[in-house]
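Sample A.
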Amino acid sequence: MKDMLVLYRLIEEYGYNEPILLKKVKITELSQDSVRQAFSRLASKGLLERFSRGVYYVPTDTPFGKSRLNPKKVYEKMYIRDGENIFGYYTGLTFMNEIGLTTQVPNLVEIVTNNDRSRGRIADIGYVKVRVRKSEVEVNKENVKTLQFLDLLKQVRVQDLSEEARDLLKNYVRKQGFKKAEVFSLAKGFSSTVADRLIKSGLIDELT
């Protein structure tokens, strides 16, 4: 009975083929120990699938057997966002590839997040390698895009980019509508190199 209550609540809150982080599951009628035990029993019955330690999902049946969970859903939920709550962002080659600054396909995903204290560790999320490091400034819904931009300047000298890439970056900054006051305020949380590169980049004219 407890097991089916847990399964019903999970389907109601998460649906199918969505990552469920066991440590975040709260069911008011049950203790955390009871919830953990229910997860274990449901997994043994095939009603829940274990993706990795502490990560589960409610599977669906396919012509090839039980559905598989997309690792991207897992690392985004762990390190970038959970619903409307944003606590991380893509960085490095991952972000540069996303906005078109490079065609190089990264061999790992790079993420900056509030949810890790390391300076850069590699986590295996399914078949994907993810490098995560702690954010120098607390990430939230309001500042995430600006922090992502400043983090890019930490890694790239704009002057070293091709003319095409510089134009693309200027267009990106213009479209985001970054505000000069906010950019310089958040830049204080980074090393002085970032502010210096921002000044020398020629991107200040694109800030509002």
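Sample B.
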Amino acid sequence: MTFRVIPSSSFTYRSLAVMAVALSLAACGKPQAPGNMPPGASARPEVGVITVQAQTVAITSELSGRTVANVVAEIRPQIGGIVQSRLFREGGEVKAGELLYQIDPAVYQANHESAKAGLAKAEANLVTVRLKAERYKNLLSSGMVSQQAYDDANAALRQAEADIAAGKALVDLARINLAYTRVVSPISGRIGKSTVTQGALVTANQPTALAMVQQLDPINVDVTQSSSEMMQMKRALEAGSLKNAGANQARVKLLLDDGSAYPLEGRMAFSEATVDTGTGTVTLRAIFPNPKRDLLPGMYVRAVVEQGVKEQAIVVPQQGVTHDPRGNAVAMVVNAEGKVEARILKTERAIGDKWLVTEGLAAGDKLIVDGLQKARPGAPVTAVAAGAPSAPPQAAMADKASAAKQ
């Protein structure tokens, strides 16, 4: 067998060549280090920002309450008797003065006729008594009658005149009782169910109402507000940081129990003058138009009351505000050096999907709202307008390289 000896120098050169090719192939599959990135490429993460602006906002409070009929009339009989008929449709609309019930008028009609007859009798008696008194007056001067006889005739005249006055009062009373047999509605509105039927016996001023009429347009909404919140609002108005939205005329919007918004706007009517000692709240009343009778008494609602107007207010999206372990509100902003800066905020309240910020931000600050997970305090970032589409990194690099060749 014959062995061929390869010179050591040839083996070394070939080994080095193979190793060089292997390293080149491995390098092609690895990403380039930041130091070897093409000119113009940036390693800064991209974040979406908004520019904070001062604006005028309406300060509102969302208060819970219930609807209350504007006017309520409980229908009760003024006299006793048998109900002859019911003349309305339950749940329908009635007008003021409309006949609702008819009570049997026979007895009251007879009493009215009797009172008129008594008045006629007293008027007839007055004629003879007056003539006698006048005749005695003439005879008294000539001494034909005594002073006692004249005084008796004059007293009889006054008695007859009093009987006529009493007779007229009895006629009026009988007429009023006769009119009460017609039970009419004192107001216009929607009437509820009837508690009596035809043939029922009713009595004067009975505790149970025959029916109830409620005026629903407009309708009242009674809500409650804590006395502490009311005092805070009052101090803000006195300090000038909040402007009044209008005394007793503040606008009010309504949210129904299912979360939908009532389409018509109301106004604040008044606030109660005392604080409820049990709950520490004050009752506020708003008035809403209700032409379609969508709102019924007793409904649970939430009223959004405009209690003031704040000028030069800083309002930012809630997505740009986080909270640290201590519960402090924190926002990330891009400073003038293009670096992320953490700010501790003081938020007063939520207005829709935004926070009202009283400390920590100023007009002109660039607040990060997109890409917060990429923002680290002190790290440089590339700020773009929030919501603007960003170009893919490969496309951006290709565009830069093309521009460099040209």
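B remarks: The chain is about 30% helix and 35% strand. The domain at 59-70+214-310 is CATH 2.40.30.170 (Elongation Factor Tu (Ef-tu); domain 3).
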